[in-house]
Amino acid sequence: MVMSLQWTHPTPLLLLTAYLSVALVADSYSATGEKLSAASFLQDILQRYGDNETLSLHQLQSLLERLEVGKGSGDPHNMSQCFSSSALFAAHNLTHGSVLDAKGFQNFCPTILQQIETQACQETIVPQNDTSTEGRPSPGEVWGFGLLCITVISLFSLLGVLVAPCVEKPVFRRLLIYFIALSIGSLLSNALLQLIPEAFGFNPLEDSYVLSSTVIFGGFYLFFFTEKVLKMVLKQKHEHGHSHYSADTRKQDAEEGVTEKLQNGDLDHMIPPPHGSESDLRSDEKAVSSLAVQDLPGQQSSCYWLKGIRYSDIGTLAWMITLSDGLHNFIDGLAIGASFTVSVFQGVSTSIAILCEEFPHELGDFVILLNAGMSIPQALFFNFLSACCCYLGLAFGILAGSHFSSNWIFALAGGMFLYIALSDMFPEMNEVSKEDEEGGQALTAFLIQNAGILTGFGIMLLLTTFSGQIQLG
């Protein structure tokens, strides 16, 4: 009896175990048989890197960079070396406009597999001053597009001649607010999304860098939005309770605002009541004006001409504006030239950011020169001198980007863009918006500022995100 239990008891358990094993294997086989096939892997690659199940040469280049293949310059007679992407393309008779379908990519796959298996490209170190022209525009395209973009920027900046008679109108002031905000968004996002990653030498579309940069911009915008909303709310409460202020409190507020008015160039409210003669009052105002100009030599921006200030020393002012603007334009041209040596798309993106910034900047300088006593031809001549520095910077940028590493130029341009956007244009936007804010139209100015900043950021984000699908040159 015991023996029969020992032989018969494990039999159902073994049968059940065998049945479950067969069922699991059958289910797994049927599931994989329905969802997984040899063509699935090929379709996945074409969907992630190509368009309409085809690969352009630029998209194939992106795949090779992802696999770290095609970055060497090996001897064609030595198959164990790492070859350049141009050599791999030439081996398959691929030209600049070639497009690979599924069959063509299958023929190219053994080349990729051989380069990965030999591990030759993993040991290849690309020097910082690599002068390989693979994937780069031709010298004719670089110089042609560069000169075209700088000429357009220079001509666009001279539109101040047409709008100068309208500077006193509220519509012009609000249009200027929008352009200043547009320059802030475009310069800041161009530095975060394109120039800084190029300075570090990696593709901004990889490793979720665009998402991280968007979060950085979101942090800036969140604090900007919060600060503006709090100021509007607190100002309404301040105006509501203004009648409860004592005379001493109002006197203290007026004294605290003296320094701010001096920095903003608002001299009319700083002149004391006339206890003397009119000539004494005029001399006092001239002294304060001279003091403000001497103390703030680096803040000659377009916000001053809204106050109607006139300067006495025309020659010094003209040279100061011309030299500072010339240096600014030289670095702009340097960034544009270096960007075009990398790709036409990169150069156009940088040019768009500079174009958004140059219009309000050059317009402010132009009207300052007019208020300084210059004629329109004289102001145009000084603007022309500063514009020539942009052409000079373009030449240096193209030569440096073609023969040396352009990473340092991108780093310099990225830092300059961050400074101009946050330290120059942002305070200027607040100053130009002050008249609307004091006139009870703070919400209108706030909406215009938001529209400009978000438009500039949106343009650069779209250009960066779809850079692989945009073919220029």
UniProtKB/TrEMBL annotation:
Organism superkingdom: Eukaryota
Region of interest: Disordered: 243-281
GO cellular component term of the entry, any: lysosomal membrane
Coiled-coil blocks: none
Membrane topology: Multi-pass membrane protein
Catalysed transformations (reactions): Fe(2+)(out) + 2 hydrogencarbonate(out) = Fe(2+)(in) + 2 hydrogencarbonate(in); Mn(2+)(out) + 2 hydrogencarbonate(out) = Mn(2+)(in) + 2 hydrogencarbonate(in); Zn(2+)(out) + 2 hydrogencarbonate(out) = Zn(2+)(in) + 2 hydrogencarbonate(in); Cd(2+)(out) + 2 hydrogencarbonate(out) = Cd(2+)(in) + 2 hydrogencarbonate(in)
InterPro entries named among the record's database cross-references: ZIP, ZIP_Transporter
Signal peptide: 1-23
Chain ranges passing through the membrane: 142-163, 175-196, 208-226, 380-399, 405-422, 443-463
Pfam family, one: Zip
Biased composition (Basic and acidic residues): 245-254
Subcellular location: Apical cell membrane; Basolateral cell membrane; Early endosome membrane; Late endosome membrane
GO molecular function, one term: monoatomic cation:bicarbonate symporter activity
GO biological process, one term: intracellular monoatomic cation homeostasis
Keywords of this entry: Cell membrane, Endosome, Ion transport, Lysosome, Membrane, Signal, Transmembrane, Transmembrane helix, Transport, Zinc, Zinc transport
Family assignment from sequence similarity: Belongs to the ZIP transporter (TC 2.A.5) family.
Known partners and oligomeric status: Homotrimer.
Name of the featured protein: Metal cation symporter ZIP14
